[in-house]
Design goal:
three-stranded mixed sheet, 18% strand, two-stranded antiparallel sheet, 126 residues, 2 domains, elongated, alpha+beta
Length: 126
């Protein structure tokens, strides 16, 4: 089944390329390397985020920058919710995940945190 899917994708890519559309077919290793280096496939041209990357704790939003959420969306949230604090967080994760698998607010001042997910240093989080 995977071979057939690969063949269909190659055929689709060929159709797009004939129409002048560039198709980026990166290897698995290159995808992992780009992800590890924060060389995201998404751009910062416009806000883009997955709601699963946002957790609200009262007046605080914790937003995970990821392969599906960019800095432009974090700034968009800051502009559209000026009465809230928006915290950008990043974790040493290679794949998309829902932030509620990492942080769960229990009550004011208390959060349940997944010990398997380690945040990157403070320079990455602001």
């Amino acid at each position: 089944m995977e071979d057939k899917a690969g063949e269909l994708l190659d055929n689709f890519a060929a159709i797009l390329e004939k129409r002048g559309i560039r198709v980026d077919q990166t290897s698995e290793k290159e995808k992992w390397d780009r992800t590890e280096n924060s060389d995201w496939i998404i751009t910062e041209a416009e806000p883009l985020f997955d709601a699963a990357d946002v957790a609200r704790f009262g007046k605080d939003f914790f937003v995970q920058k990821s392969m599906v959420t960019n800095d432009a969306s974090i700034e968009w949230l800051r502009r559209h919710y000026p009465d809230h604090r928006v915290h950008r967080v990043t974790y040493m994760e290679m794949l998309p995940w829902h932030i509620d698998a990492t942080l769960i607010p229990l009550r004011p001042g208390l959060v349940l945190a997944n010990p398997e997910r380690h945040p990157l240093n403070a320079a990455h989080n602001r």
